[in-house]
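Bug #77: duplicate submission created two jobs. Keeping one. Sequence:
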Amino acid sequence: MALSSYFYTTSIGAGRAVLEEVTVWIKPRSQPFGLLRRYEQSMVSAQPLAETDVNTPRITDHPARSAAGSSGAPESYREPACGSRYVLGMRVDGTSYRETAEAIADLVSAGEGGAICVSTVHMVMEAFDDPEFQRIVNSADRVTPDGVPLVWALRLLGIGHARRVYGPSLLPIVCGLARERGLSVGFYGGSAAVLDELVRRMWRRFPGLEIPFAFAPPFRALSADEDRKVIEGIEDSKTDILFVGLGCPKQERWIAEHRDSLSCVLVGVGAAFDFHAGNKPQAPAWMQASGLEWLFRLGCEPRRLWRRYLYHNPRFLFHFARQLAGISR
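Kept job's structure:
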């Protein structure tokens, strides 16, 4: 069975190759920027992308404040200067957009890869129920408070300056920084149509941004051979930062399984691909600020999301209250 919508550019030479019946365009980096030929004409006449419902805050300086984190982090983990706390046993960092984006750039410079998680109540409860998944998240280089309830939790646990670092907003911020510093980005996840539109919009918004890899995996597990070819494609493309949009907990597990095989920094961003491609609506800003984005998303996709919110949210409130009272972790 063919891999779906697999395409990337590399520096190994110009031409065209075929991977399991799917066309792969290959170009050297010295050629004019572009990923697939069908995009070239649209980019010539592209107008600046209008603002969408996706909040995209500017990166602003934020003073780092030291705060002692809980014990239990892996030896390889170095706590951000802005501090960390453990929410029901899962680490959440009191980071900011600037600190996270700079941390990603630093990881690229180090050349050893890395993992970034954007955490929500759903992720906390998945980690609460599964110690192995908790270990995966706690070993990430950054775990940002994507959900507003986790910002509130950090503040209650002593990080008064905590603010939201939201995956859909982090993606364009990192893309902007990547363009400024000559770094390349790639996308793994979503559907072929979503990736088509996402890449088109990112190019319009950030002219000159290198996007050498994008892959929409099939809705099934890849075979060992397919997975190997995907890894080879990512490495051949020389992607510096790979955004992974598979949803929690699938994307965090994928990142953990492939982190040692890839030299790029892996950033899990959940539903960001769908939001930026205009495939799904996003909650109004007032609902996001009020911690009610979950209610909007539940209304949009009740059959898919009812368990995530109606089962996990009350459990989170109960167990976090016990943590604050000192009754449980």
